[in-house]
Design goal:
alpha+beta, ATP binding, Alpha-Beta Plaits, single chain, two-stranded antiparallel sheet, kinase, 6-stranded antiparallel β-sheet
């Protein structure tokens, strides 16, 4: 079993419902247990700016799925929720990013772990800090990154 951290976002339709549906789908994955879900935060779009605000959450889970299996399952969940990949960083019903998978370091054509940009993105780090285990091997790095960045654009919307 590995402790994994995911970042989920939605900026189309009923954003909160897409996030709730995704968490429920994660709960149904074989050999996987959702351990913690952050509150919902509203954030400005990143990259492609001509789109609506996002709702973002972080999820901590324990899974027996291997990294590529987990990626395949999260992409299936995205598709089941109407995800279309038309514009890079564009609007989407649901986005699920694998941020950390235990202490695994991986880089291939399909997956990079840890996520290559996560320490630069407040919309990932603020919810992530909420579900992070205090003794997690990544905790000090995450807290240091958060201490050095503005987080005023990450607005709490509701508790999970």
């Amino acid at each position: 079993m590995a402790t994994c951290y995911l970042s989920l976002g939605s900026n189309l339709g009923d954003r909160a419902n897409y996030l709730h549906t995704a968490v429920q789908s994660l709960r149904e994955l074989p050999g996987t247990r959702v351990e913690a879900v952050s509150g919902i935060y509203e954030t400005a779009p990143y990259g492609y700016l001509e789109q609506g605000a996002f709702y973002n959450i972080a999820v901590r889970l324990e899974t027996g799925l291997e990294p590529h299996e987990l990626l395949r399952e999260t992409q299936r969940i995205e598709l089941e929720n109407g995800r279309e990949r038309t514009i890079h960083w564009g609007p989407r019903t649901l986005d699920i990013d694998l941020i950390l998978y235990g202490t695994v370091t991986l880089c291939d054509e399909r997956l990079t772990l840890p996520h290559p940009e996560y320490l630069k993105r407040a919309f990932v780090l603020v919810p992530l800090a909420e579900v992070l285990r205090p003794n997690d091997p990544h905790a000090a790095r995450i807290r240091a990154a958060l201490d050095g960045m503005p987080t005023d654009g990450v607005t709490p919307v509701m508790a999970w």
